Amino acid sequence: MNLAAAPSAPPVTHYENFPVASWLCPPRLRPAIAAIYWFARTADDIADEGDAAPQQRLDELAAYRADLAAAARREPASARWPQVFGPLREAMHSFALPEPLLANLLSAFVQDVEKTRDAAGYADRAELLDYCRRSANPVGRLLLHLYGVHDGASLARSDDICSALQLINFWQDLGQDLRRGRHYLPHQDSAAYGVAQADLQALRQTPEATKLIASEVHWARTLMQKGAPLVHQVPGRAGWELRLVVQGGLRILDKIEALDFATLRTRPRLGALDAPRLLWRSLWM
């Protein structure tokens, strides 16, 4: 789902979908949110950045997972990522952050490496949602944990929002991801619309591809709208920030639609001119 350094930033990459220690966040939570951010951001860089071979990335992620386990046991981590695991260890024990949620994020990064290596892609929407369950949903659940929100309905809505943000990121970055060997369009959906994998690889915006992307955008919008009532369950300023996050995701979908779903060719972005619209829509939620 990528992280953002500012509140309500548009979904740009996996963890740029959630705010990091912004001015809307209570001061007592800012160190913990920053620790979660740097944990996820660093792991994402291990999986994505540079010229390392896939096996080297997997070995690095395994070492990173071992340091997470050590932090959970209040034991010293290795000296490789002190800027990550020092603050994270403190946050885990100050706020009882669930280790399995953090570990799920790492499993998604591992899957990113493996899926890129074998270019298998995702068979259907259920398989892609399982990836979102580990790559995006833990972020929302960790933030709800910090705010003391634990009821099942709120967790389910958080999962819908986070999965929607991850899907929006996929459909926004479709052409860029395909160039990098990332295949997120479910094969079952591609077959249903008669879209050949060769056309996707060549970034051909055929009429069939346009209909396929439109269907995926509708799916993401439906998920976001399903989760949107969560903004009324999250307390205080965080609820207002969540409104902006939801509206930022929906605005990206509007822009994809305005491009006639041609994200094999073009990547839509949010800009300063979108801010008044996002604020207005957030007020009316």
UniProtKB/TrEMBL annotation:
EC numbers, comma separated: 2.5.1.21
UniProt keyword annotations, A-Z: Transferase
Enzyme class, first EC level, given as a word: transferase
One of the GO BP terms on file: terpenoid biosynthetic process
InterPro entries assigned to the protein according to its UniProt record, in alphabetical order: HSQ_synthase_HpnC (IPR017827), Isoprenoid_synthase_dom_sf (IPR008949), Squ/phyt_synthse (IPR002060), Trans_IPPS_bact-type (IPR044843), Trans_IPPS_HH (IPR033904)
Keyword Zinc-finger attributed: no
CDD domains membership: Trans_IPPS_HH
UniProt GO MF annotations: geranylgeranyl diphosphate synthase activity; squalene synthase [NAD(P)H] activity
Domain of life: Bacteria
A Pfam family that the UniProt record links to this protein: SQS_PSY
Protein name listed in UniProt: Squalene synthase HpnC
